[in-house]
Write a structure and sequence with these properties.
The chain is of the alpha+beta class. It has helices spanning 3-28, 35-75, 93-100, 137-148, 150-153, 212-216, 222-244, 254-257, 273-282, 285-288, 299-305; strands spanning 107-110, 157-161, 167-174, 193-199, 202-211, 259-263, 293-297, 317-318, 327-329, 332-336, 348-354, 358-375, 380-393, 400-404. The chain starts with a helix and ends with a strand.
Length: 407
């Protein structure tokens, strides 16, 4: 971690201590915030959010600077040592540059160079690969897609296939049970119940336009530019469906398939600390112990959760001490996604559980197609990026649960 990121992280911790002291003072006196205190609380929470964005911007900027230096070193004919040692150079870099200059045909397929562990590309957590620098164009593109999708940050099971034909995945709807059986008695049969979910390949696409001057400037990091633009655009579109997709003409969202683990009793769908504890323990221990066990909420909900205390008087939200690592809620990492519903009556506003039971299917990598004619009068070269993907929760026995506001 750079000194700048470290300083910002320390500042974030101090701001949280100020906010916590403010809330503690009101709690000790058994009263709500005064108008001035409420304004200060909102200001401190806004500063926390702003610091999160600055820390991310610093880390991303440092990575871009390193990528640019690597590109310039290539132009100078220098061989720079890769971080971590033994990593392969960017797969397809020269082919990609030839393609964007119009020298390599009208399409370019970007495929994973062997099995890809998507959890290692989660930049948000050092323990989940935050210090790993993706080196191939495919990995860089997927890293941006993951940054844009909270569900992909939580470690779902990703299936890579070379083509897009439908594949049948068994889904578990009930587990086997056992009981005491007396001597000589017939053992009651109890088989697990299975269903099937079909994973297809819905097509996501985005258009990216680049000036002719940019393409002819070989010092520009074109791989970084295209991977960022395509990854974020596709990540936002696919990410929305991974949360609330209906399964009709689009993937099935995790909220769509998850069961209700806790229904609130407070008017307006408001959440209490006890509600979140009940939700956490509605998911059985093996799922809670998974490294892919996460909370997912939207930003506004997280702001309200920051105020909550358990019966011991301690805040149930714990700020991360590592730059860009997820904060913790009741000991489990929490990420935000704008596609999760906000707090409201009957709204499913909190998701919790083992996200590895959510299967994501990606078919055939990413295809880039080039047109010199689409924006001919503007002297722009147009690129079209296409990804075929689908997703669904495959364990319906309670691996993932949601909190629902009071009915």
């Amino acid at each position: 971690m750079s000194e700048v990121a470290k300083t910002l992280s320390e500042r974030r911790a101090r701001v949280w201590e100020q906010a916590k002291a403010l809330a503690d003072a009101a709690a000790d006196e058994n009263r709500t915030f005064s108008g001035e205190e409420e304004s200060t609380w909102q200001s401190l929470n806004a500063e926390l959010d702003a610091l999160d964005k600055r820390i991310k911007a610093v880390i991303d900027g440092e990575q871009r600077a390193k990528d640019a230096e690597d590109s310039m070193a290539k132009l100078r004919g220098e061989q720079r040592k890769q971080d971590g040692g033994g990593q392969r150079p960017g797969l397809g870099s020269e082919e990609l540059r030839a393609f964007v200059r119009g020298e390599g045909g009208r399409h370019f397929d970007v495929m994973p160079s062997g099995p890809v562990n998507y959890r290692d590309l989660t930049k948000g957590s050092a323990t989940a690969g935050g210090n790993t620098v993706p080196t191939s164009f495919y990995e860089r593109l997927m890293a941006h897609l993951i940054e844009s999708s909270a569900i992909l940050q939580t470690g779902p099971t990703v299936l890579n296939t070379s083509s897009g034909e439908q594949i049948q995945i068994p889904k578990t709807t009930a587990h086997s049970t056992a009981a005491i059986t007396t001597e000589g008695s017939t053992i009651t049969e109890s088989d697990p119940a299975f269903g099937q979910v079909t994973l297809g390949a819905f097509k996501y696409g985005t258009i990216i336009q680049v000036s002719r001057e940019l393409l002819t400037d070989t010092g520009v990091d074109l791989e970084g530019y295209l991977s960022m633009q395509a990854g974020r655009a596709i990540g936002n579109a696919f990410g929305a469906h991974m949360v609330t997709g209906t399964g009709t003409g689009q993937p099935r969202g995790i909220v769509t398939d998850a069961t209700v683990g806790k229904t609130g009793a407070t008017a307006g769908g408001l959440i209490t600390a006890d509600d979140l504890i009940d939700l956490q323990y509605s998911v059985i221990a093996p799922y809670r112990a998974s490294s892919s066990c996460f909370w997912v909420v939207k930003d506004a909900t997280l702001g309200a959760i920051r105020k909550l205390k358990g019966s011991d008087g301690q805040y149930i939200w714990q700020p991360s001490l590592v730059a860009s690592a997820p904060d913790l809620l009741l000991g489990k990492p929490i990420v935000t996604d704008p596609n999760v519903a906000g707090v409201a009556t009957t709204a499913k506003s909190v998701v919790f559980g083992d996200m590895s039971q959510y299967f994501v299917r990606m078919a055939g990598g990413v295809r880039f197609e080039r047109s010199d004619d689409f924006a001919f009068n503007s002297d722009l070269v147009t690129f079209r990026a296409l990804l075929r993907a689908d997703a669904a929760l495959v364990d319906l026995t309670g691996a993932v649960k949601v909190f629902q506001g009071a009915v």
